[in-house]
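Researcher: Please predict.
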Amino acid sequence: MPTLTLPTSDRRLERYTTRQPRHWPKEPANPFDRVALAAVHVVADPLANADPWLDTPIDWEATLAYRRHLWKLGFGVAEAMDTAQRGMGLDWRASLELIRRCIAEAKSEGGAVVFSGAGTDHLAPGVHGIDAIVRAYEEQIGEIEKLDGRVILMASRALAASATGPDAYAHVYDRILGQMREKAIIHWLGDMFDPALAGYWGHRDLDAATEVALDVIGRNADKIEGIKISLLDKDREIAMRRRLPEGVRMLTGDDFNFAELIAGDGEQHSDALLGILDAIAPAASSALAALARGSRNEFQDMLAPTVPLSRHIFKAPTRFYKTGIVFMAYLNGHQRHFVMIGGQQSARSIAHLAELFRLADGAGLLVDPELAAQRMQTVLRSHGIDA
C-alpha cells in the first residue's frame, strides 16, 4: 500500500501508509426505506478563460457524471443547494442552468429523483420589501416548475435582512406554499452554514424560532413534503420531528449526527438531505440498503466510521465544508483537478486536508489508494511538502 508524508495540526510531518481499500457495491443490493437526497457539488472548469473569483465556469459533463454516479447508488439529488456553492460562487443564472441540465439528465436516466433549490439570491444584497421577496421566490419557483421540477424552498438572506419579526416569515411562507404545484421541502439552514441567516424565523432564540416554523408547517402541511433542518443539534431535531404533522418528513441536515438520526429511536427516524452524502456515497448506499433489510448492525458498521470524517469536513467555520467535499471527489477520481468556483479550494489548510485523507482512508472511502495517494502528493507539493 502507498506511503506518503503528511503534515499534522501541530506542524510536524509524519509518514502514513494507507490501508487496504474496502470494496463497496456499485449499486445497492435492495431499495432504501429512507428518503436519501444528496446535496451535490459542482465541478469547476479549470481551463475556462474566466476570473475564478467573479465567474462561474462549470465543467458540465463532469458535474452531470457525478449526479449519475449518485443516482446509480440509489440517492436522489438535491440540486443547486449550498453544497453546490449556491450564493457562495454559484449565482441564480448559473443555478438555473444547472437545474435545467440536471432535470433533463434525470429524465434520460428513467426519472431519477431531483429536488431543486429555489430562493431569492438574484436580489441585490440588503433590505427589500416583503412583497419583493415573495415575487423573488415566485420567479425562481416558476422557472423550476416550468421544467417539471420539484422544489426545495431555500432560506432567504433577503428575508433574514428585511423581516422585522416572525409575522414577515409567516406571510412569505404562507403566500409561497399556497401556490406550490407539488409539495415542497423547506430548508432551515443555520447560521453556522451561512452567517447571513442568523435569527431566521424572526428569533435568535431557537426555541422561539422552532415554534414559528412549526406554525407555518401546521398551516401548510398539505403543501409540504418535509423540512430539512441544518442546525447541528440532534436533540432539537428529534424534538421537532415528534411534533410534525402526519405526512411531513423530517429530513436531517445534521452532518455531525446523521447516522443516529437516520437509524431512529425505534418509533421515529429522520430521512436525509445531506451534503456529506456526496462524499461518503458508497458507504452510505450500502448502509442504507442494510438498514432497509433490518440489519442495524451492518448499518452501524458501515456508517459509523464515516462520522468522524463528516465532523472534520464540517468543522468550524462550517461554511467551508464544500472544500472537503470537492477534495474527496478529486481523491477518488471523479474529477481531474482540485479547483473550485470562487477559488474556494484555498478555504481549508493543508493540515486539514491531510487529516481528511487519513479519516477517509480509515472509513474505507479511498476507492483506489494508489490514485488517492498520488493526488494527495500533488496537493502536498503545491504546499512545499516534497518528502
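Model: The radius of gyration is 20 Å.
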